[in-house]
């Protein structure tokens, strides 16, 4: 959240919290989803982190995760987003991004 709502040096310092995402990366070792071969409750619970993270990256230009630093998490997110029921239930990327931009504007206005 700090990487999303702050600017400059403070933003980059907050983005270093991405190291905590490595815990999730370890949970994917040897399997495509957190629960094994198919999507589970944990995948759904964690899914918002990946979706929100991608929006944050696009809006504020801070790298939270990518295929180089977190290949298992990135591969999982791509599979998760293509899972039929998830794909069917999520709003379009444009709508999600626009909503997140509005939220970002409110947060950054409050901090200045």
Automatic annotation (TrEMBL):
> Which protein are we looking at?
Uncharacterized protein
Question: What organism is listed for this UniProt entry?
Answer: Pistacia integerrima
